[in-house]
Structures are given as structure tokens and as C-alpha cells.
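Appendix B. Worked example

We walk through a single record from start to finish. Start with the input: the chain for Alpha/beta hydrolase, Cellulomonas shaoxiangyii, length 227.
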Amino acid sequence: MDMVLVAGLWLAASEWDAVADALRRRGHRPVAVELPGTGPDAAAAASLEDQVAAVVAAVDAADAPLVVGHSAAAALAWAAADARPGAVRRTVLVGGFPVPDGATYADFFPVVDGAMPFPGWGPFEGADSADLDDAARDALAARTAPVPERVARGVVRLRDERRYGVPVTVVCPEFSPDDARAWVAAGDVPELAAARDVSYVDLDSGHWPMLTRPAELAAVLDDAARA
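Next comes the structure step. The output line below is what the pipeline stores for this chain.
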């Protein structure tokens, strides 16, 4: 099956390389999307609309794909399902959740010179980064690119309620499926509350399983493809 892979904030498409290799061995066709604004010289230029358009273009070039969004990019995967509800076979949300229409995409940290840089490991201490040693943290931080302000502070626009019919798999790395279900039941994730086919999968990792558990994440995606 075709799989469109979308990395979260600050990350390049190459962070999916190990997962993509494992997926190919399982017979799938992974395509990691290089989001506009992730290059070192383009940070201030891109917008949220540009990033959504890049994911939708990857969907259009694929054959009924799974669309996998990591962390904040769960909202990009969901936006692609909204834009192409008849083409996306399933969305897989890894450590993240959809953002409702009219909400800000990812205005989480200070913006500096038109972009939101990686804030360091302080905000991610604990379960998020417990499976990354110091060397892995340093290497990942060095690879990050600031998120354009017009991406981080962009407003999500969703238009087609047929997105609620696209099946969803929520992959739960640093939190549990019970946690995720409780957040949905409490009204914290209204898009998933309205979705008609949502499943939850536990994955024993921190927030970046494509780096620390690539084989296990590929197995989860393979299962989702066969669901």
C-alpha cells in the first residue's frame, strides 16, 4: 500500500528513513513528504497552507494511501483527509491529534525572527524523551529546523465533513490508549469525537518512535494498512 509519511515540527522527511526501509521490506510504498519551510534557508517563507498543499499533492500522486502524521503533523494528515476524503484510505496519527477548524496549528513556543526554533529538551523531559540518550538528543536537536511563523500560527481550515468517515488509527507512544480515549471523551479532541471509526494502538516509546522504534512503528503501520 502507498503510505504518505509526514513528520512533526522541526523535522525533515529524512527522519522517516528507517521506518520507510522497514515498510518497503513489508511490500509497501512509503513517501515521506518534505514540507515547505523545513529547509535551512526557507523557514520564514512557507505557510500552513503550503504545508497542507504539499501533503495533499502527495495524496494525489498516490493510490488510496494511508496518511501518517506525527505529533503536530497529525493535523496535516487530518487536513489531507478533509481535502481528499474519497482518496485517503486511513489516517494514522502518531503521538498527536487533529486540530479543529478555526484553531491555530501549533503556536506552542516563542517565535524568533519569523520562525519557531526547537526549544531544547526542557519541555520534553519525562516520557517524551526517556528513550533518547544524550547523544541521540544532541543529534536530533542539531537536525531540527525552525518552524515558519506562518506555519506555527496558521489557522487550520476544514471544510468537508466526509473526513469523519475516514478510518483513524491513533498510535499512542508516550501516552496510553486509555489516556487518549479519556481526552476524546472529555471533549479535548472534538475531531476524533466526531469520527466514526477510531482505533487506538499502544507503542512503547517516547515521542519520536520513528527514531527509537522504527521497526515497531513500521509493524503498526503495516497492521493499519491491513485493517
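Two observations about the output. Residues 122 and 226 are 38 Å apart (CA to CA). Strands lie at 2-6, 29-32, 66-70, 90-94, 115-116, 147-148, 168-172, 198-202.
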